[in-house]
């Protein structure tokens, strides 16, 4: 008989006279009596009744003492590389110029300089080569891409996309739609969607996203969204969650008409750049995530984009096996060219010369980081954001996972 041990890739949570087990590689979620868990901890496997023993073995909570579990992750990474879709998300920044003065902007230290024609030529040559190898969506980013000074470049990009049958997505503050509407209509066939940020109801939004002369922007953006809606352009509402709207965001996504009529994606404003290092953090991020997630469960058009949460819920609820979160933010599928033609693999790292990538094929995974490969939370947290140096990540992530699991338990196993 093999000598067995308890897997290290597991979280256990006491629940009355039971112990809840969650396997962080395979996503198994099970409940066993405390007495059985004590036997496992003490290595008293012969005392465990066959039914429980077979469950623990088949669900991989028990593993061979000679088994190197880290090699399991590495083999799954090989599988991930084979089967993942070879789709790149390509971003293009004409400049870092913007007509807004958002209080949480991480690009305030970047401004000026418009992309030169010869630089754009080289980028389009590169995109043609990428197009020959990958399917991709071209996302126009900033700064703010919809500035009048970018009109000619927008027209050129749309013509290029039409010729090669490339879809174009525009991430915009939504303030200057009208001057471009006829251009959008002309190239409607290549426009995938508009992603427009609204951080809450009018008073909340106008406290975070203001013009350079400190005027509110909500009403005009709402009018421009209606303009795009009337022409049947797909619009996604994006909301950034920070200290200014943490107590109002749930009310906004549940009750505002914009959130009822459009798909909504919510993101946290992370303190990743030095510019935001002194910014206060949300009072209780995990509790807020739980509240928002309950709204998302009721409304299919609303999604909270937070990789560890998305990974956990997929592992628990999907019928098929979900591979670990090898790439926290999908940066291995992103390449961003700024106005200098310099490539980056992250929208928040653009302009930071420390994060220039040398080759589009460069790939990095949490398994490249020894402490993350050995950590039982690695398959869920994916190593976290590469820009955020958090020495307390293990404690914070485990507390987060436990609280989310407790929510799942209350919802699904309330009869115990």
TrEMBL record:
One of its GO terms (molecular function) is iron-sulfur cluster binding. Keywords: Iron, Iron-sulfur, Metal-binding, S-adenosyl-L-methionine. InterPro entries: Aldolase_TIM (IPR013785), rSAM (IPR007197), rSAM_sf (IPR058240), Sulphatase_maturase_rSAM (IPR023867). It comes from the Bacteria. The keyword Metal-binding applies. Residues 84-308 form the Radical SAM core domain. PROSITE patterns: RADICAL_SAM. Belongs to the radical SAM superfamily. Anaerobic sulfatase-maturating enzyme family. This is 4Fe-4S cluster-binding domain-containing protein.
């Amino acid at each position: 008989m093999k000598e067995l041990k308890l897997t290290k890739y597991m979280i256990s949570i006491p629940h009355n006279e039971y112990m809840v087990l969650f396997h962080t590689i395979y996503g198994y979620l099970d409940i066993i009596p405390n007495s059985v868990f004590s036997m496992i901890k003490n290595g008293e496997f012969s005392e465990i009744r066959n039914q429980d023993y077979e469950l623990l073995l088949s669900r991989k909570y028990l593993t061979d003492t000679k088994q190197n579990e880290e090699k399991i992750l590495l083999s799954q990474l090989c599988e991930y590389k084979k089967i993942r879709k070879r789709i790149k998300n390509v971003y293009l920044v004409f400049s870092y110029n913007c007509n807004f003065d958002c209080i949480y902007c991480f690009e305030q230290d970047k401004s000026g300089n418009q992309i030169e024609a010869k630089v754009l030529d080289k980028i389009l040559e590169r995109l043609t080569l990428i197009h020959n190898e990958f399917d991709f969506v071209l996302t126009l980013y900033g700064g703010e891409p919809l500035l009048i000074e970018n009109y000619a470049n927008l027209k050129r990009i749309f013509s290029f996309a039409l010729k090669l049958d490339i879809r174009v997505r525009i991430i915009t503050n939504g303030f200057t739609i009208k001057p471009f509407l006829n251009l959008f209509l002309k190239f409607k066939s290549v426009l995938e969607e508009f992603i427009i940020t609204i951080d809450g109801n009018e008073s909340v939004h106008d406290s975070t996203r203001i013009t350079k002369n400190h005027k509110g922007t909500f009403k005009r953006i709402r009018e421009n969204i209606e303009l795009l809606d009337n022409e049947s352009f797909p619009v996604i509402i994006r909301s950034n969650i920070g200290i200014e709207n943490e107590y109002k965001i749930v009310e906004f996504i549940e009750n505002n008409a914009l959130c009822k009529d459009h798909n909504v994606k919510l993101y946290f404003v992370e303190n990743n750049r030095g510019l935001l290092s002194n910014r206060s953090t949300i009072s209780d991020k995990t509790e807020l995530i739980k509240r928002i997630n309950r709204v998302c469960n009721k409304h299919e058009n609303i999604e909270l984009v937070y990789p560890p949460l998305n990974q956990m819920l997929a592992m628990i609820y999907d019928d098929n096996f979900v591979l670990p979160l090898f790439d926290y933010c999908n940066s291995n599928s992103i390449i961003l060219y700024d106005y200098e033609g310099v490539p980056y693999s992250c929208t928040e790292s653009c302009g930071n010369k420390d994060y220039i990538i040398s080759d589009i094929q460069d790939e990095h995974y949490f398994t490249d980081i020894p402490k993350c490969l050995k950590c039982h939370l690695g398959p869920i947290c994916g190593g976290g954001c590469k820009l955020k140096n958090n020495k307390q990540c293990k404690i914070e992530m485990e507390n987060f996972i436990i609280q989310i699991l407790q929510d799942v338990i209350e919802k699904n196993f309330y009869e115990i």
